[in-house]
Amino acid sequence: MTNAAHPFDALMDITARPPVVFVRGAGSYLWDDSRNRYLDFVQGWAVNALGHSPPAVAEALAAQAKRLLTPSPAFYNGPSLQLAKALVEQTCFDQVFFANSGAEANEGAIKLARKYGAKYKNGAHEIITFEGGFHGRTLATMSASGKKAFEPLFEPKVSGFRKAKLNDIESVRKLISPSTVAVMLEPIQGEAGVWPATDEFLRGLRALTQQRGLLLIVDEIQTGMGRTGKLFAYEHAGIEPDIMTLGKGIGGGVPLAALLATEHASCFDHGDQGGTFNGNPLMCAAGLAVLDQVAQPDFLRSVTETGLLLESELQRLSARHGLGAIRGRGLLLALDLKMPIGAAIVAQALAEGVLVNSPQPDALRFMPALNVTREEISLMIDCLDNVLTKVGAARRVA
């Protein structure tokens, strides 16, 4: 695709993008180069926890950029130490490794589990993951994912991942063998269409893994950093995993991710893990600014309240248009469309100035900024109501 004003063809064509070029963002809004404004309920796939270009993050980046960008990961730096300590204090984990993306953090979790198996479980290396799961796009994380579209790609895959069924504890139990070292899952499967693991299932999984001497890994790339109304989704079930990965919202818009582990599970030796930009002070300064706001009890209560409002408004909309259930928790929700019209709705909503996401053909996913307002929710619902009316009418005519 080419355009007189923009060299679209210079980018690899790896996804279908609309011919819109965004140039500015503030809070829940984006503006394109034609000065059109868009209400954003995607927020970079749950990346912009505090909305677009939040002042706290912008100020932290500007101040840190004047002091130090990166001294190399071979040395300590202040922001990484401060952010690691803050994360440890807010969780059940003891140590942190910083990365640049969720996939890299998940790759690190897989490596850590396999190292644990090599050291303590006679070389056990298999990790039980779940059908419908999504853990990233490296070869190992694609292999760990349960996404059907990944199955024929980039063969041969990395071996050692067996797939259980979400919320089916017996399916997990049947897959455990002497080669099993860990179980890994998302508390809510986002890419699959926002399918939550129940609190009961998570508690059962924790009990089973402890009974069998296995590590429990929670992939909180999308659910962490307040997205579900608690700082981390595992807290809803009252469990303590062995390993957790964070990404997306932790940087508030900049590339930052983290691998957290208990002292028991932290078994990397020198040279096992690293990365040129990992834990650099610029990104960690942004992470500190995000965590400082998101970890506040009043902020988390507001996420819960706003999530309940969005859920009730979506339920009302669903009833009006004869659609399905609302899934998810906090401000990670999905609307079951009951038919494959997601792409048409996304395109029409974009034309009317609202950004929503369809992770599956029959579902819409909502991932607004965690500080989205009631008024912005109302505007999105009104737009979606109008779009659903148009799409419904078009289908009836067809």
Chart the SSEs and their pairings.
Layout: E1 22-26, E2 29-32, E3 37-40, H1 43-46, H2 55-67, H3 78-90, E4 95-99, H4 102-120, E5 126-130, H5 139-144, E6 161-164, H6 169-175, E7 180-185, E8 188-189, E9 195-196, H7 199-212, E10 215-220, E11 243-246, E12 257-261, H8 281-294, H9 297-321, E13 326-329, E14 332-336, H10 342-351, E15 354-355, E16 357-360, E17 363-366, H11 374-397
Parallel strand pairs: 3-15, 5-6, 5-7, 7-10, 10-11
Antiparallel strand pairs: 1-2, 2-3, 4-12, 8-9, 11-12, 13-14, 14-17, 16-17
Helix pairs in contact: 2-8, 3-8, 9-11, 10-11
What tags apply to this protein structure?
18% strand; alpha/beta; 398 residues; seven-stranded mixed β-sheet; four-stranded mixed β-sheet; globular
Describe the structure.
The chain is α/β, with parallel strands linked by helices and 398 residues long. It contains eleven helices and 17 strands. Strands 4-12-11-10-7-5-6 form a seven-stranded mixed β-sheet, with helices on both faces. It has a four-stranded mixed β-sheet with strand order 1-2-3-15. A four-stranded antiparallel β-sheet has the order 13-14-17-16, covered by helices on one side. Helix 9 (297-321) runs parallel beside helix 11. The longest helix is centred in the C-terminal third of the chain and has 25 residues, at 297-321. It is globular and about 60 Å long.
